[in-house]
């Protein structure tokens, strides 16, 4: 059986490395092209000596010609993805973009969140948002998928899974999220994410200005009226993992049993969504290096608290990208992500 060809642009970064690790265990894909301007000319095995199964490839620069027929994963900064995606689509490549360049459908909101002008906003009509649990059928037929943000995934899914109960929400939803440095900013060299600034420290950042806030608002309420949200991210002194606490107030008449029934019904056939017995059972360590999203909750009167956890590099990025790649290429959605 011939394999589907993959090209990973920005494969030298954290997310690119994670995707390479996952694809190494997938017999349906062959990575044929990897780029990095920083380590151009070096081999994958030289750059990632601790990763088994790396293909015998050398990094080339981002502007190198991509093999015909390859599906392209963009693990590149927002402005780079904005420019590269339309050109790749025009050449007939399928594209999955891991940046935020093509997530928001409101152009003004995008430019407020990302602080630059979008030069190819017309492409938003062609893109599918890459949360398989919400948009599975669209992803199967898509040529262009925008992978969600890691914080966004941890909040969108628990809210969206409430289904028609969302109509009974009566006040602003508060989302309090904590991330390891590989999700919060580990792809940069900003001093605030350096070991000496993270160790024995804990802080919030981008208060009321994080780009994932409008993303959560757009997709958590698909099929119903949008509610106001307030999202605050925090930086944990750990490498990988996100834990989010979501505070929701309902109208009278919604009980914990009602919520349990709805979440159970909406996750029973989802291989990567796990509803745990109590919110205290949800921990970052239980999802690290996996594609699972764990959810726990509790109610007191009409107040619901949901706790979710995921690995920002897997379900929050490369793992979800592989879910999407599987769907786009007709493979089982769990292939390369769950043990056979």
Rounded to an integer in angstroms, the radius of gyration calculated over CA atoms is 20 Å
Distance between the termini: 19 Å
Structural class: alpha/beta
* Oligomerization: single chain
Overall average pLDDT: 95
Number of strands: 13
Spans of 5+ residues with little confidence (pLDDT < 50)? none
Q: Characterize the main sheet.
A: 7 strands, mixed
Shape: globular
Helix proportion range? 25-40%
**What spatial order of strands do you see in the largest sheet?**
8-9-7-10-13-12-11
Q: Report the total helices.
A: 11
SSE pattern = EHEHEHEHEHEHEHHEHEEHEEEH
Strand content: 15-25%
Task: List the SSEs and their pairings.
Elements (H helix, E strand, L loop, with lengths): L3 E6 L4 H10 L5 E7 L8 H4 L23 E4 L3 H13 L4 E3 L9 H8 L13 E2 L2 H9 L3 E3 L3 H11 L12 E7 L1 H4 L10 H4 L4 E2 L7 H8 L9 E7 L6 E8 L6 H12 L5 E3 L17 E8 L2 E8 L3 H15 L12
Parallel strand pairs: 1-2, 1-3, 3-4, 4-6, 5-6, 7-9, 11-12
Antiparallel strand pairs: 7-10, 8-9, 10-13, 12-13
Helix pairs in contact: 1-11, 5-11, 6-9
């Amino acid at each position: 059986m011939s394999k589907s060809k993959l090209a990973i642009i920005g494969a030298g970064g954290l997310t690119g490395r994670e995707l390479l690790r996952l694809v190494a265990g997938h017999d349906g894909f062959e990575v044929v092209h990897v780029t990095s301007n920083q380590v151009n000319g070096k081999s994958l095995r030289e750059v990632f000596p601790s990763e088994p199964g790396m293909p015998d490839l050398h990094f080339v620069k981002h502007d190198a010609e991509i093999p015909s027929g390859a599906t392209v994963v963009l693990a590149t900064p927002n402005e780079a993805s904005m420019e590269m995606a339309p050109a790749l689509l025009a050449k007939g490549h399928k594209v999955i973009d891991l940046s935020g360049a093509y997530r928001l459908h409101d152009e003004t909101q995008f430019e407020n969140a990302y602080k630059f002008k979008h030069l190819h906003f017309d492409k938003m009509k062609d893109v599918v948002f890459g949360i398989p649990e919400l948009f599975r059928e669209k992803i199967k037929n898509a040529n262009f998928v925008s992978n969600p943000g890691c914080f966004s995934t941890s909040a969108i899914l628990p809210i969206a899974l409430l289904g028609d109960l969302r109509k009974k929400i009566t006040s602003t939803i508060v989302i309090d999220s904590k991330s390891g440095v590989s999700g919060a900013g580990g792809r940069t060299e900003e001093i605030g994410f350096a070991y000496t600034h993270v160790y024995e420290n804990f802080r919030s950042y981008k208060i009321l200005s994080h780009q994932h806030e409008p993303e959560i608002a757009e997709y958590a309420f698909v099929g119903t009226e949008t509610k106001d949200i307030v999202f605050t991210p925090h930086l944990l002194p750990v490498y990988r993992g996100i834990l989010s606490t979501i505070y929701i107030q309902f109208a009278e008449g919604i009980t914990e049993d009602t919520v349990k029934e709805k979440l159970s019904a909406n996750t029973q056939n989802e291989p990567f969504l796990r509803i745990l017995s109590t919110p205290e059972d949800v921990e970052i360590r239980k999802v690290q290096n996996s594609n699972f999203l764990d959810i726990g909750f509790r109610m007191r009167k009409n107040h619901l608290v949901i706790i979710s956890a995921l690995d920002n590099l897997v379900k929050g990025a490369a793992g979800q990208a592989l879910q999407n790649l599987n769907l786009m290429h007709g493979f089982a959605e769990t292939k390369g992500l769950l043990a056979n």
